[in-house]
Specification:
The chain has a 7-stranded mixed beta sheet, sandwiched between helices. It contains 5 helices and 7 strands. The chain has one domain (2-166): 3-Layer(aba) Sandwich (Aminopeptidase). Helix 1 crosses helix 3. With 167 residues, it is of the alpha+beta class. The model has no long low-confidence stretch (mean pLDDT 97). The chain has helices at residues 11-24, 33-36, 41-48, 100-112, 130-138; strands spanning 2-5, 54-60, 66-74, 83-91, 120-126, 142-153, 156-166. It is globular.
Length: 167
């Protein structure tokens, strides 16, 4: 398996996997399949194109198929630029439990540490997603709060745990 930063040439593979995630686990994301399925390739390219404060990592099998993604975005306001955020973590169901998510997160942390002045990485996770919370805790993230009714999908509310990793 290979973990690397995605570029515009990965846009179609990224969009396919992202839409798969929004279909497979719609409760886990703030966005929806209906919204993102309408994104043009140019919008997807813009979303994944890396810069000094943002990157998307992909996990690839030996056959070069994309099996996992995660996004890092540093906050850009003067008083919050010491923080970065994790978004859109997704691993295909058949590859879960095989260390893909952990490898993605460890590489995200490694790359984020290179951002000058970055002090912490934040993420949110649906409170009843025990496997994801266990993964994040295993690499040092700690729960610091919970937002009740953070997401609403098909009339059902989902709480989110707020987690932080101090660098």
């Amino acid at each position: 398996m290979k973990i690397r930063v995605l570029h515009k040439s990965d846009a179609e593979s990224y969009q396919e996997l992202r839409l798969n995630g929004l279909t497979t686990n719609p409760e886990a994301f703030g966005s929806t399949y209906d919204r993102e399925s309408k994104f043009s390739l140019d919008i997807v390219i813009e979303r994944i194109e890396p810069n000094k404060d943002k990157f998307v990592l992909g996990a690839f099998k030996e056959n070069n198929s994309l099996i996992g993604i995660v996004t890092f975005v540093r906050e850009n306001a003067v008083k919050t630029s010491h923080k970065g955020n994790v978004f859109g973590m997704y691993v295909t169901p058949e590859m879960r439990g095989k260390g893909v998510g952990k490898l993605l997160m460890l590489e995200l942390i490694r790359k984020a540490r290179k951002c000058e002045g970055l002090e912490q990485i934040n993420l949110t996770v649906v409170s009843n997603n025990e496997l994801a919370k266990k993964l994040y805790q295993s690499i040092g993230f700690r729960v610091y709060g919970m937002e009740r009714n953070a997401l609403k999908h098909n009339g059902q509310y989902f709480d989110e745990d707020l987690m932080v990793l101090k660098l």
